Amino acid sequence: MKRKFLLLIHFFAYSQILMAQTSKDSLISADSVSLQQLLNLKSSGISSELEKDVNESVQAASKRPLPLRKSPSIVSVISNDEIQISGARDLVDVLRLVPGLEFGTDVQGAYSIVLRGNVSTEGKILLMLDGMELNENMYASIQIANRIPVEQIRRIEVIRGPGSAIYGGFAEYGVINIITKNADRNGFRVTAANGMGKEGYMRQTASVTAGVGNENVRFAAGAWLGRAQQGEGKYRDFYGNSYDLRDNQTFQTMAANLLFTYKNLSVSTFLEQYNTQIRDGFDEVRPQAYDNNYKTLIVEAKHQANISPNLQLTTKLNYKFQRPWELRASSLKVASDDSTEYEVYQRSVARYKLNSTMSYDFTKKINLIAGAEYFQDIAKTDSVTDMFYNGKDKLSYNNIAVFAQSLFKYRWANITVGARYDHHSHAGAAFAPRVGITKRYDKWHFKLLYGNSFRAPSVENINYSENAGIKPEKSTVIELEAGYQLDENSLITMSLYDIETRKVIVYSSVDDVEVYKNLPKTGSQGIEAEYRYKKDGLFLTANYAYYTKANKTQIGIYSVEGHDGAILGAAQHKVNLVLGWNVTKKMSLAPSLNWLGKRYGYAPADLSGLGELKEYKPTALLNFSVRYVDFLIPNLSVVLSGYNLLNASNPLICNYYNAGGHTAMPNNPREVLVRFSYRF
């Protein structure tokens, strides 16, 4: 602890010495809110049509624009045009375009996420909507299937690497920031979509966006209603039980996202009722479908005070209430011959958070961002027979954090130095320093990045840990990126990474009792490459990702026997290809391909509940989309897309194998979707 405080003190002392320097070069200052306002700090970008698209300014509330590639992080950006032209059906389709990110299956219909060969399901990736944190605070999990319709999304930013130095304990492996159309849309738009499979509907969505106002006062709203099927075919558990997925494995969502701004004050509100109807339970099929509900209310007020031309102070007050994984006994219609013990869960959690961040330009060459954050979590149970580990119906924790980040711009390189120190009232301390060196030379650009990150235990991690003794998981990440401008229309980048994770927070189930514990260490190494081309209405994105765990310690429940480089359910090789072509001013075509290398998972072996390791062959998902604007009448857009046209098998595979594990879940059958959108 003392060593970490000394490191922080030395960091600030060093910063003060460097701040005495001056420069003639200009520096765009940053504020505390934007993903890139805090992270985009690299050397000059390439002046081209492609560069303008790739490095589109990050905008929200009162932010100043910063190019994406001026960033001491490895970042993917998916623009609104790419989302719309690609014909993506939902958020999962969009995120599949990100190198190194893939999905699996988890308990009770939830999707798991793997990033760079590391299971990232609970609290290891931060999911944000317009800067508001969406991870639920009981288990820190992310619900993602059929949750946020693509019609609401303006752009998505994904940090493929550590974000804890800025965002804290849910950003250990990465950050997904979804930016909606609330901030920049006036007028009124309605959208309806319907996707059909072989056996009937696969997804149906209705969505509206509206905005009115001027530069001083503005109100915007987005609202949506939707439902979707998990897939088609049969699911079979380790005991030989099976059921048809149709109407037994579904996702329903109803949500509203509201924004009110007055000058430098903004108030955002997000309300959501998300529901999964499932039969797969934890490890075996249930006799009937039952509902898991996820209820969310988030209210955030933000004010930016421009104290001087060089100094801004941003204050945020956030309230988040959630009731995740809810299963009430009263909602079950149990048949008289059904002796199943359903996992009734009736707990809620509220988080109260205050954040204050200062941004100051000492000179034209030196910028400092510094601040503090405090939050308190209060969890409650509604069941008198389901108390927390302390024997009470309530648990409460708090966390206090201080953070700082400085940019020093030199002729030979840009240097970003930052750190965040958190102290959790139960789990203890976590320290996350980061250093980034970035440079552009002629047609080349380089990034050398070092960062520590951590995964803070959530309420149930503590509640179900051995003797409530769970500690923060901590990672060290080293990244190197190099990029080369082939010509004014094309750019290629390649990145290498090494991840070492210690005190790994792992879930297991022993005799139907949940247990969270810290295991020694794990990690991964890998390479990611991307080529982008854009000119005259034609764009091409091609990327490749590879990971290996061969040089790292494996966690037993994630490992693949006889294949040290892989983990369960996640392909070591992944390729994405997206081609968009504006044939005319009104019509565009977009073929795309998602290719996954071979994967491993456990399949039913007999009726005893045991499984056997199975190799799943490589999968190629071929998709095609046609978009037409001003279709028949002005302001009417139509998208017709075909997904998985070859009807390739692409199951969601569980990333772990132990008591509570799953067999592979059928997913992504051939689907034809039509989407109508009308702007008033």
Strand proportion, as a percent range, falls in over 45%
Could you tell me the radius of gyration in angstroms?
24 Å
Overall mean pLDDT score? 86
Shape: globular
Bin the helical content.
under 10%
Major sheet attributes: 22 strands, antiparallel, barrel
Oligomer: single chain
Total helical segments = 7
Pairing-aware structural class of the strands and helices?
mainly beta
The residue ranges in which pLDDT falls below 50 over 5 or more consecutive positions are: 1-46, 58-66
Distance between the first and last residues' Cα: 59 Å
Find the count of extended strands (DSSP E, 2+ residues): 36
Give a brief description.
With 680 residues, the protein is mainly beta.
Structure report:
There is one protein chain. With 680 residues, the protein is mostly beta strands. It is built from seven helices and 36 strands. It has a 22-stranded antiparallel β-barrel. The radius of gyration is 24 Å and the shape is globular. The relative contact order is 0.15. The N terminus is likely disordered.
Write the layout of secondary structure elements.
Blueprint: H1 2-18, H2 35-39, H3 49-54, E1 75-79, H4 80-86, H5 91-95, E2 101-105, E3 111-115, E4 118-119, E5 125-129, E6 132-133, E7 153-159, H6 164-167, E8 174-180, E9 187-197, E10 200-213, E11 217-229, E12 234-236, E13 242-244, E14 250-262, E15 265-278, E16 290-308, E17 311-326, E18 347-361, E19 366-381, E20 394-409, E21 414-424, E22 428-441, E23 444-455, H7 459-463, E24 473-487, E25 490-510, E26 513-535, E27 538-548, E28 559-560, E29 563-567, E30 573-582, E31 587-596, E32 599-604, E33 611-616, E34 619-628, E35 636-643, E36 671-679
Parallel strand pairs: 5-8
Antiparallel strand pairs: 1-7, 2-3, 3-4, 5-6, 7-8, 9-10, 9-36, 10-11, 11-14, 12-13, 14-15, 15-16, 16-17, 17-18, 18-19, 19-20, 20-21, 21-22, 22-23, 23-24, 24-25, 25-26, 26-27, 27-30, 28-29, 30-31, 31-34, 32-33, 34-35, 35-36
